[in-house]
Design a protein that fits this description.
Length: about 120
């Protein structure tokens, strides 16, 4: 059974050039990312040793690099790329839930945002 413990990073803000439309690739826009990583935190909780934990700062840095490394047309691909990088970088992450939000998507809406959410489990 997968762990229910998790590390959560919410409302990470990035500026990027992802999107289908030409103006999105030229002008860019804000993105928000929420990510939850399933990691067994028992040893870190019991020992209080940093060496047994996964660094939130390192997770953030991996997310930032994955977000910035390539321009994608779809936010689904942005999310999947981040998931792939996290699984490659942290062998202790068992599952990931990620939400990629576009608060200023180029559609006629007065308020709100568009978003996708992915849930992926590590495959061995």
């Amino acid at each position: 059974m997968a762990t229910q413990d998790c590390i959560i990073l919410n409302d990470l803000a990035f500026y990027g050039y992802h999107g289908v439309f030409a103006e999105e690739s030229k002008l860019g826009q804000r993105f928000r990312i929420d990510i939850t990583c399933g990691v067994d935190l028992a040893e870190a909780g019991n020992t209080d040793k940093f060496s047994t934990a996964v660094s939130y700062a390192d997770i953030y840095e991996t997310v930032r690099k994955a977000f910035e490394e390539k321009r994608f047309h779809l936010i689904e691909a942005v999310g999947q790329n981040i998931v792939n990088r996290l699984f490659e970088s942290y062998s202790t992450i068992e599952w990931i839930r990620i939400r990629v939000r576009k608060p200023e998507a180029p559609i006629a809406m007065v308020t709100g945002e568009v978003a996708i959410e992915l849930y992926r489990e590590r495959t061995n």
